[in-house]
Amino acid sequence: MNTQTAPILEIKDLKISLPKGADRPFALQGLNLTVRPGEIVCMVGESGSGKSLSAGAIMRLLPEPHVSVADGSITFEGEDILSKTENEMRALRGNRISMIFQEPMTALNPQKTVGWQMDEVLKLHLNASRKERYERAIEMLGQVHIPDPESAYNAYPHQISGGQRQRVMIAMALSLSPKLVIADEPTTALDVTTQLQILKLIRELQQKDGAGVLFITHDFGVVAEIADHVIVLRKGEVVEQGSADQVLNTPNHPYTQALIASVPDLQPPAPKPLTSLPVVLKGTGLKKTFTARGGLLSGKRKAVAAVKDLSFQLHQGETLGVVGESGSGKTTVSRLVTRLLDADSGAVEVDDTDLLACTPPELRAMRKHIQMVFQDPMASLNPRKRVVDIIAQGPIVHGEDPEKARARARDLLELVELSPAAANRFPHEFSGGQRQRIGIARALAMEPKVIVADEPVSALDVSVQAQVLKLLADLRDRMNLSLLFVTHDLRVAAQLCDRIIVMQRGEIVESGFTADVFAAPQHPYTKNLLSSIPGRSWTPPVRKIDAA
Amino acid sequence: MNLNIPPIAIYALRRLFQAIPVIILIMIGTFLLLKLAPGDTVDALVGDMGGADAAFIARLRAEYGLDQPIWVQLWRYMAKLATFDLGQSFVYEQPVTTVLLDRLGTTLLLMATSLSLAFSIGIVLGAFAARRAYSLTDNLISTLGLIFYATPSFFLSLMMMLLFSVKLGWLPVGGIKTIAGFYTGWDHVVDVARHLVMPTAALSLIYLSFYLRLMRSSVIQVADQDFVRTARAKGAGETRLMVHHIMRNALLPAVTLFGLQFSALLGGSVVVETIFTLPGLGQLAYQSVIQRDMNTLMGIIFLCSIIVILVNFLTDLLYARLDSRIELT
Question: In this complex, do B323 and A59 lie within 8 Å of one another by their Cβ atoms?
């Protein structure tokens, strides 16, 4: 971009030291970075790469003394940040440098109204009357396109939606027209359609004020959507930096190449001729309403129809994706199908036996035909049991000889590409991706006909995500499994699913072969979803799955 | 059906209805439990008199209705209770209501001062310790809290008596006022206050340590949350962070504990009132158990259940006021 203008932010050889006993001595080793006015610099890296700590260092909000700047300089508008006093920093924060955080749910004080929190920034830095501050806050809420700013001003954070909360965050961060905005994964917790709106909003407001933006993310789709300049971090070291176009399309460093190669592209597999194979799982007319509770002696709550009249068929060896945004009822579907939740009406047939009509003993016997892989690989494994027991527990409950079940559990570990030595360790000793492999092995131990996977990769870094997806596809083909795959991520769905169902507010709005739906979506909602995928116009250049 | 009743009134009414079965169950349970204990009022009375002939005992039993089967006695008691008639005290030969109201003031005064002192001091110390976590100040406060927590109130009472009354002679040993003093006006207030210093301290120190520990961990936890970081990034100073962002959120668990501890405190006051011979409900309960004064005991339990339910209701209201996410339904 325009290299003549003086940079807003200049970081030279920044080193951040970690406390003793951490996995490495420095969280960040020699970071060099420049943000110019009107420029969006994206800092990309997987979890633990030190990207959030660099933001903390700029704001001087590191958890000192455990983590502190060891070396290097940070210059903001020609002034040395590191030598400023705490009072001088306080005057800068929120005023000339401001920050947008990741979790809109927790980043706002739950006990104060939106207005109070907007007002706080203005009160801290402006010498303005109450009326002027109110007008400014309302103006900002209007600028971030919140419908009815006056009513949002008086609302508490829990009374508005996640997307609106993030808009409030942005309004707050930009209300004093800062020179530098640091955005730390601002859209990670949001649905794709909301994400796109927020990204557009950041761009729009930033261009208006000419501010520099340091944008931290792990998502290459988002990078492709918004970045001017990209810095790739790995374990505290910069492996590559350059213009967005160069890093995204002609990456030099093998790590960047591997990362980009792990981004699922939007080319769905060619449809398999599966419809002739037998149907293993069939749902008909499924309905679930979370009923209005309460009565005479307790409060009433509104009834919510989570799933309205849903029918689908899953053939042998096929992967059916259930896609939708939060609140669409896709997770409820996965729970109904496995009868972890009881449906109000309808039938789920596994091999022509209606699961929903089973008596409890019959149901226990049926359970082994349909197994689940859960989203959070940490929370879904019992932390007090060894891996081998976690995997063998299912078969043992179903009457298999414990010794045999354990021996088979060890074989399964090999099947999911973990070392057999893993068997005697506890879940917390593994990384997220490895834990998800254990979760898959646990499901496979029952030799199920169908696996229901509820967002199995959404908590994982891209490179790990790619590996787990590949493993799932592999196992499916080798063992002739059928997968019901619930996800919010259309890129993931495109990579794995043969057919997809798109859900909105408990109803199927569109279904069909993934390739067909992606190529020519019929329903406006599907069109909207597909056009909101960040970086949809960018096709990753290299295709190698031997990622780090 | 829109009767324009404020929602808070509907809520209060529903809580009232919910409280009725609770109280009935408590009363029936206590009644049966007391009947399970060997001996009754007549045994205790006769024991005090040094013995009496069988015919007199039988007449006394019939007079008190104690010759009936337990179910009949229970039914009669509950029927009277339904009209808020707590019956006569066998020992004091006065209506139980009169006896109770006579004693209620002292206990409430003791409890209110103890709990509010424990709550306010505990919270301030806890917050203070949390802001300087793992420093010398924190260690000092936390150790002190641990000592209070570990000292039984009867032991503390006796040691204080020994030190302040016997050795130093600063404070009266027991009672609620100087009997021969006949103080009026401010002198009376000061006199009562002097009598309450040791009981209050004995009763509150252990609860103070509860609040201290809870508040310390709560503040440390809240201070670590995202919205505090947001506020810092907005340029807020430490005082502002503490007052507006941390305390408000950290107080919530302490308020919950406040409601729960009120009932525990009623139990604690039995020991303290007995040691310091304060004419309160706790002491009355203790004596009534010894003397098998069934009606008085039941009356005390009835009153205490009502107080506890009321305090919990008020705590819920306070909680809803403090936490904007909670709506009373």
Answer: no
